[in-house]
Amino acid sequence: MTPKDRISPDENGHSAAGTSSGQAADAQSQEQKLQTMISALWDRSRHTVVERAALLRTAGDLLLDNRLDQATQLHAVDSAHKLAGVLGTFGLPRGTDLAREAEVLFGQSTPPGKVEIERLQDLLAELTSLIDRGPLGSG
Amino acid sequence: MTHRILIIDDEDDIRQVAAMSLETVAGWDVLLASSGKQGIERASTEQPDAILLDVMMPEMDGPTTLLKLKANGSTSHIPVLLLTAKVQGPDQRKFAEMGVAATLFKPFDPLTLARQISAALGWKEGG
Known about the structure:
By secondary structure, chain A is mainly alpha-helical. Chain A has helices at 3-6, 21-64, 70-87, 93-106, 114-133.
């Protein structure tokens, strides 16, 4: 989802009811300007997002080997929480959903079972793939 | 009327995208702080019209920062909107009891953030 996708034009193609064509053009111009700025910000922020996803994969692998220590677990919960908060804003709502699920799975007080660990591996692979592709329209 | 908003968030990308959104879409002035301590100082000296405050921050978290803002005579009148990636009900109830004007959720839509803030604060404009 990009900011452009979030606007639902009415049947006349206006993004807001009752706007004149000039106002609609201004709004579209603002939207395009904002989208360009956010794409540039994504390019600058991408390395942080990639690092956080890598930390989640490392934590997931440690969990699989039953070697996940508490400090890494807490880092994983924090990283997943941060990814959940930002990916949707950058146009990756599915990334937010996956990160939220990872936050819950890593944050459990009891060790996750085999099914949950497998689910975690799958969702982290999907999350990595999503981040590699990036939002639509980004560099 | 141009509003002045103080954004307090430890995450650089969130601060930047929120600032871009409010400046570009609504034409508001945006002040930034990367910690609760810095945010309290800026709020006290610059007297913004509202504060957008992240909940999860290292050292001084959002709720602690909120309590300090509300206890300080020079900032207690400034409406505070909490920004959180958590969606649990108990947290929201706790925040409301602490005097927040509203709770907004991450991820936010950059195109509608100003509108959400305006609606929460009863401002007529907002992009």
